[in-house]
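Ticket #4471: structure output looks truncated?

Reporter: J.K.
Steps to reproduce: submitted the chain below (305 residues) through the standard prediction queue, then opened the result file.
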Amino acid sequence: MFACAQWGAVGEFAASRHGAVTRKQAAELGISNKVVARLKSSGHLLEPLPGVLIVVGSVPTWEQRLTVATLASSQAGIASHRSAAALHGFDGYARRPIEVIVPNWRPVIASFAQQHQSLVPGCDAVRIDNIRCTGVARTLADLGAVDPIDRVRTAFESAWRRGANLLWVRETAERLHRPGQSGTRVLLTLLDEAERHRRPTESTLELRLEACLRGIEGLVRQHTVTADSGQFVARVDFAVPRVKLAIEAHSRQFHFGSEAIHHDEAREHSLGAQGWMVVYVGDRHIRSKARVRKQVLDIIRARET
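Returned output as attached by the reporter:
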């Protein structure tokens, strides 16, 4: 990169931050405004927003645009909401929108960024890929303000699946909650659901299947089936224990090939020996929620008679 060759420490600094650096950071590393002006006029630097510089030749990525947005207005911004969800790798969130939180008194920082006004204390901030952003709990608390609960549930489940501490998430939601706030209200609802479920789903496909089955009496997730002797038989994605019905989200990713087929058959035989019926539901079936729900309810009624 040009920066590393021509302006040493500043170039290396910018290279580690997606090609972006502020004038203040450049000055602290020994590059004066006069030198910056010369580099701009020679076509080596761009200044997309006042005080924020981009090294020409650096890759114009989503991360670079997000970095620029957080560096604007004296580095007042912090990546948030859907941008933070993408940085954290939450399921269902791609690296598309540019969203930042800025303090209430800051002006609009960038026309390409969606701006939210709030204060973010240090305990709610982290760095990912050298971009300052809201932490897991704060991000989940903010998402409900911009997205419907089903999409936030997908993010919440993926965070829980990866080990997020739900006590800490609840403490954050309760600390931030104010009357009328939709984001924290959604998160508290999801936390109440999680207390009832006790375990997260193991994939997005499972979560989509659960949406088809939600409200069916006696449905439980991640149910452990044991023999009369107490010996472990299997753990199933969803179950209606009173009728010994297991419902599995069937993904080609994990159920493809002779070895996987053999494992599934052996598992089904073990469940069958205990009187359980296994129903497999794949991605194509889940696209018709009403049909999946009807089929499962029909099986439940048949097994109750």
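Triage note (M.O.): checked the attachment and the full token line is present. Residues 1-6 have pLDDT under 50 and may be disordered.
Status: closed, working as intended.
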